[in-house]
Write the structure tokens for this entry.
Amino acid sequence: MSANDERWMARAIELAERGRGRVEPNPLVGAVVVRDGRIVGEGWHQRYGEAHAEINALKAAGDMSQGATIYVTLEPCCHHGKTPPCTDALLRAGVARVVAAIADPFPQVAGRGADQLREASIAVEIGLLGDEAARQNAPYLRLLCSGRPYVHAKWAMSLDGKIATRTGDSRWISNEASRRIAHELRGRMDGILVGIGTVLADDPRLTARPPGPRFPTRVVLDATAKLPLASKLVQTAREIPVLVAVAMGAETKQVDALRGAGCEVVVFPEANPGRIDVSALLQEFGKRRWTNLLVEGGSQVFAAFFESDAIDEVHAFMAPTLVGGREAPSPLGGLGVAAMGDALRLQEVQMRVVDGDVYVRGVR
């Protein structure tokens, strides 16, 4: 592989990012067609159910695809789904070489796409900038490999690590610029989840403002079905979906009232009394092909996901304020780890100042 190979694959990864929030549960994919040392066509998967990246790039390249190399961030598909196989299009276009960043673990592809191209005497190479492409498609890979969505944990906290005061007041810890980033994040999710304690304290809407490319379901962990019918969530449930996760012992009358108000109520097993089993919850979301779930608290909810080893990415906004108080909650409740060596250390950490707040983002 040459420096130019890396440059062109980096461009394909850059193009793939344009589909974020619009193509899920499909993967983000970008493609670049190169002939005689120059780019002759580019494309990316733009929207779920529409043409794949390779098709768009080949269309842009036209006759220049003959004898060209195509750089694509994911192994080309070889099966009929919502669109025809990309391998067929590559064969018709007459490309000479396919360079893919990563193999596609989707069961109907999983190496078959590459094999089909090789059988037609097309050179196929897989692995160029593979780590970067795998990171970009971590939610897609998480869903395929574990049957559950990729979990983002998001919180705002003071400099001394408090997400609310001792009285429960939390508006507003972060500044307006930080909240804009949080709303952009919401707009790319399949679901936004909080615990009933957060709803009772803040009466949130849990919507993206302004709306993003996706319209996430609002999820409330509410073992005993205490969600008030007068809450903003219930009052808007017929316009924007609300899923209430309750335990088996939830009061039937309250469950029926929530369903009558337009909420979807799903019964889950408990990990402990009064606490919904996180693994069962995530498996249910995986069956619905949710790719990204945003967990917004409170501290006991974060603790449940942390203790279930289910947090994939953290988005923390730290404001330059001091709150104090032994009773003021920190982001992660529960028992916590016993030794510092057991702490979860984030990788690929990015930090930036947002109008005085510090935004920290990292992955497990």
Summary: The first helix runs from residue 3 to 16. The CA atoms of residues 51 and 294 lie 28 Å apart.
